[in-house]
Design a protein that fits this description.
The complex is a heterodimer of chains A (about 130) and B (about 190). Chain A is α/β, with parallel strands linked by helices and about 130 residues long. Chain A is built from five helices and five strands; from the N terminus they run βαβαβαβαβα. Chain A has a five-stranded parallel sheet, sandwiched between helices. Chain B has a four-stranded antiparallel sheet.
Amino acid sequence: MNRKKILLVDDSPTAILWQRLILEDDPYEILVANDGEECLRVASAERPDLVLLDVVMPRMNGFETLRALRADVTLRGLPILMVTTRSEMPNVMEGFESGCNEYITKPVDRTELLTKVRSYLHQPEWQS
Amino acid sequence: MKRGEDGELRVLRAELLEAHRELSRMRMQNEQLMSSNRDLSSLLTRTAQRSGDLVKIIVAFRRLLEASDAGSALRSIEEILINVVGTEDFAILMVTDMPLMRVVGGMGPARTLSVKNPPAFDQLFDGDVHAIPLHIADRVVGAIVIEAMLPHRDPLNAADDQVLSLLSRFAATAVLAADHRQSWTRVELPEVA
């Protein structure tokens, strides 16, 4: 059985390690990108099933990356969950307006992350 | 004929009584099942919470140990404070020449304020400021000053206290060790035939 691929995008090794350790509970294949530009390259080459995307990153921030991902017709349906310290309403709105599916705030809660990821990767047939 | 009907009625009543008893037994079993389900669910929630807490501590430990030089050790401490503890308003200070302190890391107003006006070491731990002492063995060599937590963050729990205590005990040592590690020269071992 093919494992679902999750792309973690964050410039912080600590955030990546934390998300990786949480997601290790389920049999996912974890891909990593350290900034927005790398995210676009990896997403295009590896075709992940879901992306966890940080907002504050060097060179290309999370919102710019999100818009670039949504502009690519082949990646348009990809579930993208923003993972960020920014919980203020303008940031949340910008995330949804740019096309994210969910907004998760840091520090990441293990149960919240697993529940949201599972809800996108293991949808029952009637939802697909 | 009547006797026959009475007999059937008695049998039916007996069956009805038995059915009532069975129903009561099933209700009791159902209640027991629901109660053990609730216990199981609460145990599962506690286990998930504990597992999340352990991940926090493992992440903090691993990041402190992985640093290859003093700069990356300081960045690890900052990242732990941002991603694990949940603050973007803090300063990391190290004692330079007692009681003088120097800001070596941090972000937000706490960092800016500490750069402009470094706090006095001897007043740091008895004011309103949330200051975490940084130890090397039994000596305090610095402090982490946290001005504010992220607004959406839950109150600090026992696992957060453990992470802060870990930083207090090992963060300064991690910076020092990483600094030493960088200066080590690799000793080439003789080739074994």
